[in-house]
Amino acid sequence: xxxxxxxxxxFEIGPIALHWYGFMYLLGFLAAWGLGTYRAKQPNSGxxxxxxxxxxxxxxxxxxxxxxxxxxxxxxxxxxAKDALYIFKIxxxxxxxxxxxxxxxxxxxxxxxxxxxxxxxxxxxxxxLVPLGLMFxxxxxxxxxxxxxxxxxxxxxLAIRFPQDPAGLLRHPSQLYQAIFEGLILFLIVWxxxxxxxxxxxxxxxxxxxxxxxxxxxxxFREPDAHLGKVISWLTMGQVLCIPMIAIGVYxxxxxxxxxKVQPNK
Length: 266
Prior knowledge:
Its EC number is 2.5.1.145. By secondary structure, the chain is mainly α.
C-alpha cells in the first residue's frame, strides 16, 4: 500500500509551524516527566518532583549533544571530514540513539554527583522513563517517511511504499516495529520489572539488554544507511553498537544479583 498522506506540519500560525516530529518529542518529554513525577511520589523513592525536572533538563541536553556527536562519530565521519562544521548542522538531520544514551549517562553521572546520589540509583530510577520517548520518536520518523525498512514482498500486508524513497519499493515500516518493540514492549518490561525492589544496577541492566536485543532484531528489517551499508559482514552499524550494549547489560545484571543489598525502585 502507499504511504498515507500525512502533512508533516500539524499547524502554522504566521511564521510559527509545529511539526509532527517535534510534537512527538514533546510527547516523549511529557511522558517522561509524568512517569518520573509519579515514581518520585511513591513511598521511599528517595526522589522529589523537583529532582525529576532537574534531571530531565540535564538529560535533554545530554540527548542532543550525545545524539549528534554519536551520529557524527558512528555514522557521519566522512561528512565531517569534508565539512568541519558538519557536527553543528543538526538541521540537516542525523542523531544516534547510542550516542544519545551515552549523553544521558554522562548527564546522569553529573546529576548524581551534584545531588550526592549513587550513579546507579539515578540510572535505575530514570531508565523506565525512556522507552515511551523512543516510541514517540519512531512514530515521528514514520510520519516523516524517513528511516524506512528493507524491501518487503508485495503480498505482505504491512508493506508500504514511501514517497521519499527514490526506488519506489514496497518496504517494511521498520519505524513502527521499533516503536512497538524498543518503545511500548520495552517500557512494559522495564516498568513492571522496576515495580518491585531490585538490586542496584538491575533495572538499568534490563533496559540495556532489552533495547539491545530488540534493536538488533529489528535491524534485520531496517534499511541500512546508504553511505554505510553493512559494516561487518551482515551486521549493520546499529547491530554492531548493540553488541557491547547487550554484553555490558548482562555483565551488570550478573554483578547486581551477586550483591546482597536490595534497593527500592519505585
